[in-house]
Amino acid sequence: MTVQEVEQGRYRSPFYPRQAELDRLFQWHDWKGYATADGFYDTDLEYFSIRNSTGVFDLTPMTKYRITGPDSLAFINRLVTRDMSKIKPGRVAYAVWCDDQGQVIDDGTIFHLKKGEYRLCSQERHMAWLRMSAIGMDVTIVDETMDVCGLAVQGPTSFSILKTMGLDGIENLRPFGLTHFDFQGAELMVSRTGFTGDLGYEIWITNDKAIELWDALFDAGKNYGIMAMGTDALEHSRIEAGFIAAYIDFLPADATVRSGRSRSPLELGLEWLVDFKKPNFNGRRALAEEKRSGSTWRLVKLDIEGNKPAHHSYIYANPKTKKEVGFITSAAWSPVCKQNIALGTVRVPHGNVGEKLFVEIYYQREMHWSRVMAEATVVDKPFWDPPRKRATPPGPF
After folding, report:
1. Residue 5 near residue 150 (C-beta atoms within 8 A)
2. Separation between Cα atoms, residue 340 and residue 363, nearest integer Å
3. Which residues contact 73 (CB under 8 A, 6 or more apart)?
4. pLDDT of residue 8
5. CATH 3.30.450.40: does it fit domain 3-62+146-241?
6. 9, 22, 119, 354: most buried by Cβ count inside 10 Å?
7. Residues spanned by CATH 2.40.30.110 within the chain?
8. CATH assignment of 297-382, given 3.40.50.300, 3.30.360.10, 2.40.30.110, 1.20.1640.10?
9. Do 276 and 284 contact (CB within 8 A), yes or no?
């Protein structure tokens, strides 16, 4: 990074020179100090690349912490609610971590690189919390965010592209697995992970090889419909996959100022990530009490009638009473599912699978506002969940 970029508090990904050549929209936002594109060509085109070919998203701004030392497993197991002793080297785990009140601070992925060595990736920065949680433990935590760059390679042709790129054996990589390849003398880590709910991979390398990696990837993908994509397309696909996002579907517990605004893993539909059989972890006592007494809120996936996305809408149990029971946090019209979909949070006991709720939708056409009270059904499956996501080896496309 140049001195000028550091002083401005805005960093550029090592992939930026190639991204700038493609950019036609000139729409960027700040992601923890990095300039990140909303899109490059057209949000719809980029979205359909994820579902019909391959979209490539720059993961470089994602926070990356390398955790090593004799107590690394004990530290991570105390930090997160999931039992990380079950995650062997060469595997990746989705996890959440909480404060002492059992409220989610953030979620992310933990890569078990090799015995006693992990990489934790998340949207937010957490070094202060990690260091405080490591008091008394023999661990070393290094922030690698600015040293390692990454690309999400997502879509039905992603396997064919990486195979064409020369990554022999990639066909044997199972979902949530990771492996390493030599790339021009550097170590390239490839994980079968992603935020789109489709077949996809994430590839990681040191910054000095970023341009070479981009060129090799796009050269291999020229016959497979490869396309750079921005945050807007990724956001659309993650809603279809039913994935939650910080500051959209929940607020990090360390960022709230009003009580009742944060959420526990149980309230976010992540009870499967909370293992009460393992030793103590942050928030265990509070979560055990919530398990006994019941939660206040419940995350729901909603299939909504009509085609008007329910952005920022209230949810009602009965449209005649006008007493809201919750609200929408993420909404979209899904072109591939042909559904009006949303994620929301409702007060318990509402939100059981199959329950009929009502969503108040306001939309504008030619400066005229209209209101619709649309029926919504609570569902328990992702809206988009193709078999190719799990197939090993993935078929050519």
Report:
1. no
2. 14
3. 84, 85, 116
4. 43
5. no
6. 119
7. 297-382
8. 2.40.30.110
9. yes
* The residue to which tokens 């419940």 are assigned: 298
Residue type (1 letter), 269: G
Residue listed under structure tokens 């991979």: 201
Domain with CATH 3.30.1360.120 in the chain: 3-62+146-241
Cα(244)–Cα(194) distance, integer angstroms: 13
How high is the pLDDT of residue 1? 41
Rg (CA), the chain: 21
Name residues whose C-beta falls within 8 Å of residue 229's C-beta, 6 or more positions apart in sequence.
39, 40, 46, 47, 49, 50, 55, 56, 57
Tell me: pLDDT of 213 over 60.
Answer: yes
- For the chain, give every residue range classified as CATH 3.30.70.1400: 64-143
The CA distance from 286 to 49, in Å, is 43
Q: Which H/E stretch holds residue 98?
A: strand 91-98
The two tokens of residue 293 are: 């007494």
Residues 72-122: tens digit of each pLDDT: 999 999 999 999 999 999 999 999 999 999 999 999 999 999 999 999 999
Using alpha carbons, select from 244, 374, 369, 385 the residue that is nearest to residue 309: 374
The 10s digit of each residue's pLDDT in 324-365 is: 999 999 999 999 999 999 999 999 999 999 999 999 999 998
Among residues 119, 248, 275, 106, which one has the least CA distance to residue 193? 119
CATH superfamily of 64-143: Aminomethyltransferase beta-barrel domains (3.30.70.1400)
